[in-house]
Amino acid sequence: MPRQITAFSNPLVKRIRGLREKRHRKEERMFLAEGLRILTEAREAGRLPRYVFFAAESAHHRLVQELVDAVEKAGGEAIETDRDILHKLSGKDNPQAVVGVYDEFATGLDAVDRDRAGIWLVAQSLRDPGNLGTILRTGDAVGAGGLILIDDCVDPFSVEAVRASMGALFTQQIAHARWPDFLAWLRAGPGQLVGMSLDTDVDYQAPHYAAPTFILVGNEAQGLPDDYAAQCDLLVKMPMLGKADSLNAAVATAVMAYEVLNQRRRSQG
Amino acid sequence: MPRQITAFSNPLVKRIRGLREKRHRKEERMFLAEGLRILTEAREAGRLPRYVFFAAESAHHRLVQELVDAVEKAGGEAIETDRDILHKLSGKDNPQAVVGVYDEFATGLDAVDRDRAGIWLVAQSLRDPGNLGTILRTGDAVGAGGLILIDDCVDPFSVEAVRASMGALFTQQIAHARWPDFLAWLRAGPGQLVGMSLDTDVDYQAPHYAAPTFILVGNEAQGLPDDYAAQCDLLVKMPMLGKADSLNAAVATAVMAYEVLNQRRRSQG
């Protein structure tokens, strides 16, 4: 039976609201996700929140009821609340009717089973949470296994990244590693490391990509460090006809990931 | 000879700072762009700011000097200032050393010469300024002619959109139209209108695209309205293998635009 909270001063509300800050997320090892669509996708992927807050007026929505039942059955807590509290939790002027609080996932490389998928995305020092979430969403679409974050990336559990991922945070595996540890792990098994770089003449449509393909994108402003690029099996570049000679990191990753997917589709066809 | 401004209360600083709000941009018909790289690309594309603010410590940078000279020669004004003022103008904690204030461009469809490019991007009710800027940047990369905004889109001259475009705002043509006016203009000349939709079984790699191709992307949350989709020459869909069955709007546009570009590259090869 859901309890009700409508007081701003409620300690749980204060604690959950704090999860919008990285420091508190790391202390609590929990993060926020908003919206019935994303929470339902998480549920379908086998992830249930520890806490779910929902607006009283959406209590009779079938998916909300199913979610609340599932959370309570799993030992979590469902909390009926109002728009003001949801606004306070989400920080959005127009808050979603449902907010979930999830335990952070483990992000060790040791949990990554590379044979599970033919495409893996790898991002180095990615700074923008929107880009990170968008790359997760693309990974979901192309059937990638997950996203491996190298060095100091933005937190994948930040509210902005979770939001931009549109639920893919729950379907994609997330790992985090320093570059030398990633390389050692990668070279201990099969895998082609393909770096996207402006310092190459190899057109991204020229190579035949071998599975599992690890698509590596560098930092938004700097691109890949030279010594990282030197360790790749291949460096490739999209054609760029314009003045700017660069693409958004999430866009470049997607164009590249669809090329690999299209090659696989042709070879199966 | 640049004048110096270091007082927050300076009326020009207050006025320029106001351009971060749409209301003031529309009144003044001017907008902000930040960063030497973007301002230099604008200059190379033939666009000079009416005002250029630069940090005193970057006054001896060659590109800053060239920019200042060009602005003054063209009758604009160069203003030497400090980091605090630049922070105030840009709203960023770590402001760029140069901020330019440009006259808004005309955005009528009548200025669009469709024969100038084989790809045009069209976005309907796009809401996110980052997506809009990213689509402009992609347009620059694929050699598109420009971006046509349909119905109520986010302002392409917002600080966030200009930033995300990485200078492509100055190399891509921007037009704005209501849907019926766009359709009337489109049908008065050659052009294939290709809508991206989830409600089709046509794989985006199946058709042969005819130039000029107009790639139409819908609102981030709603996609294209059904009656807009019905007016397209073709509806296509990217394969999506995951749970979410959707892509970020800027990502979908880029994957589609590169498919058209790749077809053109093959037919020329």
UniProtKB/TrEMBL annotation, chains A, B:
The RNA 2-O ribose methyltransferase substrate binding domain extends over 32-108
GO terms (BP aspect): methylation; RNA processing
Per the record's keyword annotation, is Signal included, yes or no? no
A molecular function (GO) held by this record is: RNA methyltransferase activity
Gene Ontology terms: cellular component? cytoplasm
Q: Which family does the record assign?
A: Belongs to the class IV-like SAM-binding methyltransferase superfamily. RNA methyltransferase TrmH family.
Q: Which UniProt keywords apply?
A: Methyltransferase, Transferase
Alphabetical list of Pfam families matching this protein? MRM3-like_sub_bind (PF22435), SpoU_methylase (PF00588)
Q: Which SUPFAM superfamilies match?
A: alpha/beta knot, L30e-like
Lineage, top-rank taxon, reads: Bacteria
Does this UniProt record's set of keywords contain DNA repair?
no
User: Mind telling me what this protein is named?
Assistant: RNA methyltransferase, TrmH family
InterPro entries for the chain: Alpha/beta_knot_MTases, MRM3-like_sub_bind, Ribosomal_eL30-like_sf, rRNA_Methyltransferase, SpoU_MeTrfase, SpoU_subst-bd, tRNA_m1G_MTases_N
| Gene3D superfamilies linked to this entry | 3.30.1330.30, 3.40.1280.10
What organism does the record attribute this protein to? Answer: Edaphosphingomonas laterariae
